[in-house]
Design a protein that fits this description.
The structure is a single chain. With 148 residues, this protein is mainly β. It has a single domain, classed as Roll (Thiol Ester Dehydrase, Chain A), CATH 3.10.129. It has 1 helix and 6 strands; from the N terminus they run ββαββββ. A 6-stranded antiparallel sheet has the order 1-2-4-5-6-3, with helices on one face.
Length: 148
Amino acid sequence: MPNFPPVTSLIPHRSPMLLVDKVISVEEKIGRAHAVVSAEHLFLRADGTLAPETCAELVAQGFGVCEACRRLSKGLTIEGGGYLANIRDLVCLAPARKGDELIIRTEKIDECFDTYIVQGEILRGEEKLAQCTVYIFMWQGDTPPQSL
């Protein structure tokens, strides 16, 4: 198994907004990241389940850490930033619960200008808990480009 950099060196998120804890695998378009639903999880509800919309942020962060690893492996910079710009087709099949270990599987489907279209799913073992498509705007350098 490859030794990937710590996620804190790959994306700007920090606790409590940092939801992923490690990269598992990175291929040309597909990546897998890991997350644990801790008792202190930012989106943990009183009933011990994650809010369903958390899926989109997990997918975005999972993609972000895997894309950073892809770029590093090609000798490219990871300076810059990005943000979750849109969410489509969010389907929650079962709730994630406190204590669950989650696998976030992402696949880069397309890119247009500086926006990546990413399909993702959240798994607990072999069980698919949720899926969605996210649009992630990314830029290189210190600041985002000015809008036209």
